Amino acid sequence: xxxxxxxxxxxxxxxxxxxxxxxxxSNSQCLSFNAATINCxxxxxxxxxxxDYISEQDIDVCCLTxxxxxxxxxxxxxxxCPPGYKLRSIPRKDxxxxxxxxxxxxxxxxxxSQCCPVDSFQSFEHLNTVVxxxxxxxxxxxxxxxxxxxxxxxxxxxxxxxxxxxQLFAALCMTPDRLLITGDFNIHVDKPEDPTTAKFxxxxxxxxxxxxxxxxxxxxxxxxxxxxxxxxxxxxxxxxVAHYMISTHSTVLFPLNMAKPKRPIIVRSCRKxxxxxxxxxxSDIESSLLLLSP
Length: 294
Hints:
The chain has 294 residues and is of the alpha+beta class. Helix content is 20%, strand content 30%. It has helices at 47-56, 74-80, 158-173, 195-206, 278-286, 289-292, and strands at residues 16-21, 33-39, 61-65, 85-90, 100-105, 109-112, 125-133, 136-146, 178-184, 209-211, 225-230, 241-245, 250-256, 266-271. Strands 4-5-3-2-13-12 form a 6-stranded mixed sheet, covered by helices on one side. Helix 3 (158-173) packs parallel to helix 4. The protein is elongated and about 90 Å long. The two termini are 37 Å apart.
């Protein structure tokens, strides 16, 4: 008589669960298309502050001035982008400081603009690009401007700045796109009686442009960080606000009249650790080949 013995082995299986995240931001502005302009006075020592701020405020387009970044600065560039964002930066080449950048939420994208080459002007730095939205047929011609204040190292006359900014406005106004010009102009637009301010505001009017910031953006109480659009364009849905003093400048937040980009879906896999039968798991380990035949 032959006896057949059948041994049944029970194996503990730890399954992976897929979690799909598409979480809204915790702030009340999460349903609007949010833009910001920030003079950060060195992004190198504020990467965590900037990424946290962009994420918490659910900013779609963030324009930076005075980044103080260098041409070969991959660590800062990588650290500045929260997940789902990308960066375009134009650092200052000839000396320390300066620099402009745009941090953009995907699926928004940037297209090169031929309006004004990077080295066109000596009185200010600028980044000119076209923002493309997959859900919107109208693009935005975006220009980020940083004009350094007069100093021993920057002795460009104000007349040169007014002439060059006039050239920039003329080139931009020739484009069919909606215009958004923002950044630190170092002009006290809160003092309309100032001769430089009066000439600058007159230039805006002559090109059919309007400046929207009416609140102080600098610790000294002046309005230096500006948001400019075409006068006949409803690109902004409400007035910009000075929100958070991240440097000697406040962040400036403003909602745009565009559809909120759809959030990227993040897929994560995790183990259901709490559902494991620990006694069975221990038995499986003890009878595994890892222990029996090491």
